[in-house]
Amino acid sequence: MSILKRGLLSAGIALAALSVHHAVPAIAQDTRIEISAEKPMADAPYWDASLPVEARVADLLARMTIEEKLAQMISIWTDKAAIQDDDNFFDPAKASARYPHGLGFFTRPSDLLGPGSPRQNTPRSIEQSIAYVNALQKWAREQSRLGIPILTHEESLHGLAALNATSFPQAIGLASTWNPDLVREVNDHIAGEVRARGVHQVLSPVVDVARDPRWGRIEETFGEDPFLVGEMGVAAVEGLQGVGTDPKLKDGQVLATLKHMTGHGQPESGTNIGPAQISERTLREAFFPPFKEVVDRTAIDAVMASYNEIDGIPSHSSTWLLGDILRDEWGYKGTVVSDYFAIEEMVSRHKIAAEIPEAAVLAMRAGVDIDFPDGASYKFLEGLLAEGKITEAQIDTAVERILTMKFNAGLFEQPFVTDMGPALASNTEAGVALARKAAEQSLILLKNDGVLPLSLPEARGERPTIAVIGPNADVARLGGYYGIPRNTVSPLEGIRRLVGNRADIIHAPGVTITLDDDWWEDKVELADPADNRRMIAQAVDAARDADTIVLFIGDTEQTSREGWAENHLGDRTSLDLVGEQNELFRALKALGKPIVTVLINGRPPSYLTVAEQSDAILEAWYAGEQQGNAIADALFGRINPGGKLPVTVARNAGQLPFFYNHKPSARRGYLFDDAAPLYPFGFGLSYSEFEFFSPSLSSASIRPGEGVTVRVPVTNTSAVAGDEVVQVYLRDIVSSVTRPVKELVGFKRVTLQPGENRIVDIAIRPDAFALWNREMKRVVEPGEFMLMVGPNSRDVEAVNITVAE
Fold this sequence. Notes:
CATH class of the largest domain: Alpha Beta
Shape: globular
Radius of gyration: 27 Å
Distance between the termini: 71 Å
Strand order of the largest sheet: 9-14-13-12-10-11
Number of helices: 21
Number of strands: 25
Strand content: 5-15%
Number of domains: 3
CATH superfamily of the largest domain: Glycoside hydrolase, family 3, N-terminal domain
């Protein structure tokens, strides 16, 4: 097959492929692709894979002209039509005219025309994507002087954001599993699907510590705790790149990109990219640790700077953040990539530069190596070099890092896809099964007054009636940065599949939340209240004779999302339900039926009326393509929910920012309201009952630099097998600087059979006892510490430990 072949689908069939209910294709016997591409300067040392990467980089860099170096620092996305033909396929002649010296990066080859909704911007099929990437790499090898391959990247936060890719639970749902091994497995699968299409880099994971649920991007994070975020972040990178610190990718792996450095998760007023009014101490205690854990423990080779400013300095211009901290203090050697359009925003938004070339100078000085997604700023570097505003040494440093990344990715050895079989098998049996497993483990039971699990009669004559109501019942919401899986299962569909003919299922939407639910669309309009009230009346009539009501409410992809522009907002002032969803709940409650509420959302569920009056509450977040099956299994007891909250749930926005690991002087209380959270960090119930016994320590006294093992017996006292997450928190009782009232230092998710007792050992690292002292030095101060063990951050039992002189 020629790599210039357009793919197997016509434009009309490609549009039809956007449906989420099409069949898995049969894979042809021979899926191999024959590729012929000659290497320029084939005897040059940089082509010799037996040489050390450093030697290959040095040889190649010495051969490059300044124009070829600068070409390596940019990408293309919004204007990719300029290098495509009338069929939106790569055009090598146009590419050579526009980029005569090559191109370093290519943004999202899976889309046709750059940013935009898949409804208008039809994604490429798997075959088309592979043909496009192969054509891109053939051009780079044969029609650039040195044949330097292009590094392509895609979004893959919870699955490849492309057609026919497996969709896993959103990041906040994966965090709710409290299972790093599962997060590693999920990301390993994602990497395989991405790499099979010829893409070698993904823009994930997000390790922002999120401390403000008004912020629409909280769904993209692993929550509020630096330890949990760090463990999940390390697991995600290990899944994508492989375990260990060897930077060379193996088959089926991709380069991860660590996002976003940093302070992004507590923006002023909760609005995306707002200033991060955060002190250095708080940065070091809460926001830096996940990034440092990934840098220390993995082979991460790309870090993305954040949009926000810290203390008046936007991150993309911060020599302290990206230089003094990331590179000098932590010893990071890889690339720093810009967030999309962030360098230009130092002109348009931050106002620290009058023109884009000035912003480019600031970014270069701070050590930003790559300008995503379009090179709109770094296209000025050649002129800036001629004017003496930047130096060739700065350029060489950046290009050295970029080439190192490409050699580590194996692009010089094999940039082409030579077999489409693995890619065509994407989102088939293995991926679907893993998506279902991840969804099951992400579910959190927040309340249960004995209603769950629902029962189904064995005798055919006893058919209960179950009313499945709500705007999120008959849709599988995937959350931001979504892909398009081959099939999705809505909650209603999952319930109907499981119940079969053993119950009568009645459905009514009850309300419409937003007129559209497309994450990409700028305009967000709530549905007409009068129309919703008519729908509420219809839902009440439908549910009037039901035995149980299962209500699906929460968000759409539009009501909580990344607000990337003034005309594309996604943050909110209120934490409660929007639209007439509370009215719907109250009207159904008035029927006097048991109500099980299932929350489908991307932000912590601060729904006071629902929390107080529901008989049971299941938090599902955006649980991926298999959410319907997982939710149905949980509702009817086929699985036992075992997820835990990765965030504190505030009662209202007046409490914000609200996080469990606060300082001792915080949370004094309020007039006329409760200072306690609606749900504490780490909280989650089960159909099982677990008993924690008093914890013990491997040693009652340790020295600075030593860790300790916490041992706690846990028993499943119920007749139902289930999962519990054993959580260990630490408090420094008296310290030279203020310390949190408690902070997570260890956890383990365990499965216990009915009546089973298990001794759970959790090792606490030596650095858990350290603090940043008044001189901002990392030290362990001798004294008394308290270790607290329990199923969440509130219900704990303590044991003291001494750190000796």
